[in-house]
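Hi support team,

I submitted a single chain yesterday and got back a structure, but I'm not sure I'm reading the token output correctly. Could someone confirm the output below corresponds to the sequence I sent? I've pasted both exactly as they appear in my results page.

Thanks,
R.
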Amino acid sequence: MEAGTLMPDNAPPVVVTTGEPAGIGPELTLMLAAQGGLPANTVAVGDPAMLRKRAAALGLNVTLVECSPGECPGGDKVLPVWPVALNEPATPGVLNPANADYVLATLALAVDACQKGLAAAMVTAPLHKGVIIEGGHPGFTGHTEWLRDACGVDEVVMMLATDAALHASAPGWLGSGDLRVALVTTHLPLRKVADAITFERVTRISRLLVADLQRQFGIAKPRIAVCGLNPHAGEDGHLGREELDIMIPALDALRAEGVDILGPLPADTLFTPRHLAGVDAVLAMYHDQGLAVLKYAGFGQAANITLGLPLVRTSVDHGTALDLAGKGVADPGSLNVAIALARRLAAQRLSATA
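Hi R., thanks for writing in. Yes, this is the structure output for that exact sequence:
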């Protein structure tokens, strides 16, 4: 399926924030535009002067056109930009906490545009959590949590997905060619994970996951496979009691509500074709339990989706790659997937409300 095939011609644009200015985010967007790979009706948010300078340094043939939110002039190798000014000039590979507010301002503009109907979806390039914290935001833990608070919702779910319907090179795991992994906990130190696995959290995250698989992916009755927290899913309590005391009662309660949910299953065997056959998503207990497998399966051809928001948000599956910034060697594949998936999800939402 070509990126953007499902989007109506008169739909608002998909807005792409260019992320940490010292990282690869700005050049990934420029590379897609220069290659003619940006779908029509896609607009960037960032500093136009910085983008022009980066394009010139990399020898990228792309025309930047500054415009206002709601506008999105098109054309071959044209990149429309909704401007946000840097606080200080950016050097590829060199972090500057003075630009932390700039990164958050690009996100705020994208969220505002989505909420006002001026954008159909938002796609985020990577940011650097450490530089945001050092720039005066000590409570910052990542895009996902910031978007939760910006949108005024109580809970969101981080889910990453490879999508063979959008990229034929994605490996076949779930029968349909997709691997979707959602997380009960996200950017949390491992030492704190077990305490965060509660009956309430497991049931709440599971309900959100099911609801957005229905709403955004059009899956009428999703089947979810759940990873245990402990090795061998606790081995009947011999390797930890979280499965017996918390997870099994939570999953039983969900089944009583009609949720099609499997587990808790040992994570070391769940991610195999036999166990994933017919499964629409895997729910992992913590970040690396699920995402290490997904990124091995489809790194660079996967996207991050924030579920539970009143808007569509996708992102790349990688970080700022400061060592690659400004060299023109970064792979824009994940950004391409994220944009295509954002368009597909936005189209699904539009069709559901038509």
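A quick pointer for reading it: The CA atoms of residues 53 and 59 lie 10 Å apart. Let us know if anything else looks off.

Best,
Support desk
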